[in-house]
Design a protein that fits this description.
The chain has about 350 residues and is an alpha+beta fold. It contains ten helices and 17 strands. The strands form four sheets. It has a nine-stranded antiparallel β-sheet with strand order 1-16-15-14-11-8-7-3-2, covered by helices on one side.
């Protein structure tokens, strides 16, 4: 069931830049809490542990980010994914590359969501994403001829998986992009590590991906949510979350404007250009950060109607959407499951 309300009367405004606001509002660090912060995974990473004063645990989380970046990075020539995409890994006579269990599992999850969306979300997008750059400040648009040449290479059905941990491409020039999954997958691995060390209260922030382990003391974490394209990063609401992950995909996160057109990083596998489907952002809440990450991009790619339909068909996943004209839609269970607090 869909529900609709205007930006003027909205309980929630979307976008995501959560950690600092969350800490500032009432997640002030307890005396025994420890925090580690660094620039990892091409974003800012912060891990705060509330029920331990062992700084080595938070530091180890940052070290794990480095480990996984050397698996999932699309651009680092030393990463496993880069080597796979460039045909530099061991290969069998029938064309299958042998990869690590982590890389195989992440690609397997991505392929699942590609199939669910009929390739609207594609993990085989690397031939397209390598043509675009939303961070170098050049605001350059790839030639249409290059985009058209890449389009036949981005169908996830042409990525073949074979146990144990083997991957093949049906077409020469194909490649994997895990940008819509990797941070969520890494956040889940950090959670596994912390739980193994008897940590039961922590907040993991990976550049817009937030994962809450347990809650803070006797109360849920308060996660601030900001408005897309708001110059001041104003928080429109606070969402109370315990033992869940919150992830947003939006047009405002990596983008540029040229000749009155907004170009953003969520690319349409059918056209090669950024999606123009009337959405500004999609936020997903679920217990798995991997699923939340993948679903936020998948639902954005599907568009408002089909994205909501997919979410409603899944168990333990909720979300809300903001359109370009400032209206909000959310899954039926969203307000039933989560305590949404307005900022005065």
């Amino acid at each position: 069931m869909k529900k609709r309300f205007s930006a003027v009367s909205a309980v929630i405004a979307l976008g995501l830049f959560l950690l600092l606001l969350s800490l500032r509002q009432n997640n002030s660090v307890q005396e025994n809490a420890v925090t580690a912060t660094g620039y990892k995974l091409n974003t800012y990473v912060t891990v705060t542990i509330y029920d331990s004063d062992n700084e080595a645990l938070a530091d180890e989380c940052l070290a794990l980010c480095d480990k996984y970046e050397l698996i999932f990075s699309r651009t680092n020539p030393e990463s496993e994914l880069y080597l796979l995409n460039h045909g530099l890994l061991p290969r069998s006579e029938d064309g299958y590359y042998t990869v690590s269990e982590d890389l195989y599992h992440a690609i397997e999850i991505g392929k699942k969501y590609s199939d669910l969306s009929d390739n609207a979300f594609s993990i085989a997008l690397e031939p397209l994403t390598s043509l675009w750059n939303f961070t170098d400040g050049t605001d350059s648009i790839p030639a249409k001829s290059k985009l058209d040449s890449a389009l036949p290479l981005v169908n996830s059905e042409d990525v073949l998986l074979r146990a144990p941990n083997q991957i093949a491409f049906l077409k020469h020039g194909m490649g994997i992009d895990l940008g819509a999954i990797a941070k969520g997958y890494i956040a889940d691995r950090l959670k596994e590590y912390l739980l193994s060390q008897n940590v039961n209260s922590a907040l993991i922030y990976l550049g817009g991906n937030v994962l809450c382990i347990g809650q803070k003391g006797n109360a849920p974490f308060r996660i601030g949510i900001e408005k897309p394209f708001d110059a001041d990063g104003e928080a429109a609401a606070i969402l109370k979350i315990a033992d869940n992950s919150v992830v947003t995909s939006g047009t405002y996160q990596r983008c540029f404007e040229k000749d009155g057109v907004l170009y953003h990083h969520i690319l349409d596998s059918r056209t090669g250009y950024p999606y123009q489907n009337g959405l500004s952002a999609v936020t997903i809440i679920t217990d798995s950060s991997t699923d939340a990450d993948a679903l936020s991009t998948t639902c954005f790619s599907l568009g408002l109607e089909d994205g909501l339909k997919l979410l409603e068909s899944l168990e333990n996943a909720d979300g809300f959407f903001i359109t370009e004209d400032g209206e909000y839609y959310y899954t039926e269970g969203f307000l039933k499951k989560y305590d949404v607090e307005r900022i005065p």
